[in-house]
Design brief:
Length: 236
Amino acid sequence: MDEKILVVDDEQPIADILEFNLQKEGFQVVCAYDGDEALEKVDNFGPDLILLDVMLPNKDGMEVCREVRKRFDMPIIMLTAKDGEIDKVLGLELGADDYVTKPFSNRELLARVKANLRRKQPAAEEGSTEPQNAIKIGDLLVDPDAYLVTKRGEPIDLTHREFELVLYLGRHIGQVMTREHLLQAVWGYDYFGDVRTVDVTVRRLREKVEDNPSFPEWIVTRRGVGYYLKHPEQEK
């Protein structure tokens, strides 16, 4: 295993524990203890995944997340306080892929890290019966091999989680998916978080793919049930 992980936490004992446990799993690990150092090590270390605490000196985790997302698309897992629901939602809005609530178990953290790294790879995790060629839905083209979504030929800058969500909906076009089902299918493990995680990711995705996110044409809400991706020929 040669994946590289950047751990960002201003509490050195926590960072040391995370570094030790991740290295035991075979990861390359580098730690940063404030926001400025985190951004410097993103450039110099080139991590495959970032574990990012919300509360940091200099620049907080939200600002670091925002800056990283301007240039990179590696998975970001936010480390939030026990009651930091606002932190979780805001982090997802800024482009984080996941969050872990402190205090967390080593087993839970490793599950989240490995799931997010698996999702980073453009692999055929849906099984041999699922199409591996590009999926065309009107002006949208979802290409699982290139890990790319284009709209009218123009590439759309998506996070890994956003891509996995639109890919999953595209592979089940017209099928309404509950939020709970999407948490398990797209997030890749038994996820006990708030279903608002799905709502936030859908809203962020709509802002990128829809002409008018307030009146979505593609990612449609079925009130009281969940979401589905609508084919242009499908009746309203």
